[in-house]
Amino acid sequence: MQLDQRNYPTALVPKVTPELEAARGQVDRLLASNTFHASDVLRRLLRFLADKTFCGEAEDLKEYSVGLDALGKPPSYDPRQDAAVRLQASRLRQKLDDYYRNEGRRDPLVIEIPKGRFKIAWRPNDTFQVAAGPVATVVVPPPAAASPPVDAAASVNLKTWKNLTIGFAIMSVGLAFLAVWSFSRNSRTPVVSPSIPGSTPELDALWSPFLSSAHHMIIAFSNPLFVGFIRKGSPDIIYRRRGTRGWDDAVSSPEFSILSRSLGNPAATPNFNLVERSNLVSTFVLSQFFARRRADITLARAGDLSLQQFADNDVIVVAPSFSDKTRMALPANTEFVADEAGIRNLHPLAGEPQLYADPPDHQQSDGEALELISVLPGPMGRTTVMGFSGNHAWGVIGSVQSLTYPAFARTLVKKLRASSGEIPSYYQIVIKIRYRDGTPTEASYVTHRVLNPTENSSDTTDAN
After folding, report:
1. Would you say the pTM of this structure is higher than 0.70?
2. What is the DSSP pairing of strand 217-221 with strand 297-301?
């Protein structure tokens, strides 16, 4: 393999050594792998960083030039307001980890991108040298023997089932790790330290209700209803219809009837064991953000929480919306409500729409999404409840990431801060998330309302 002399100035072309040749071959192997096959953005970024490294220009790379040359950003791109490069670099590191845990665990070289740098590095793969080395892997059982196809609908749902199963396996590993960490906590005293990397006054102010609270904290993810078809001798099929309110609603839908007939009317059963990608990523981001700030975090399924738990604990909920019972128990009159059409503006001000409409296709990997962030008092007014609500998986991920990013925290704090300099205790914010190739790339403020608590006599002992 030879370096393309036409692409680089002669003075910058390094001597082709066996080590360099091996590294270039390993990058080519990564780019051709199944792990990177579905992401053109990450493949383009990896190729760009590798080429710059091999020609000796990586040390001079800046976030702005990477955005322009690798991600196709316009000249007006501002890294201080747009975290696309950092987000994609983080995704690339995660994708490299995924590759070497699975497809590339026997490759001779490990390609890495050290944090805070754009120059790739490589080292011998310990697993390649010592086959019995301590490598953590996720073992997925081999699929059952293929059965005759029933029709197109069944094939699509079988693929969905496989993807969800893999996602749930990853979620299980993450929850197991966080459960061990949670049991190891020895204090319920919140910890806020200015020495925490990435901590800023604006971030601390934005998250103050959770950082300064003496109450235990729960991060709750949604566990939506899936319908499972039990097929003897063939893999079960699990699917979900968005907007389903309950089992009766699910089995009376046209989608249920069509799919059931196409599969030969097998037995159907409710399934709550799968977690969506948006909840998986968002829960991880929040857990990572609070890991060095609080020592008393528990993970829970939102549908399993009682109103008493909302009254006794500070709760962050990552779900399409609060349940009707929970929303009625929170003593504040909300100004916005998220539903399938977008964000409803219950009391529009002059010039405001009654509906901030969301694009109807929630499956596109490029587009925009509206997200509603609500900070409300708990049922008895002693605790704080925060909700991230919206229709798009990438919008939910983007909103959570944005609120843990210092630059966007400055924007929100500036909008929320009153003339007295204080941030209101309770409020709702509508933000817009732009995403590309299934990755949030930009967040922008739309509007907000300050909320005032109201009296609430709801019985907090009922189940949610």
Report:
1. no
2. parallel
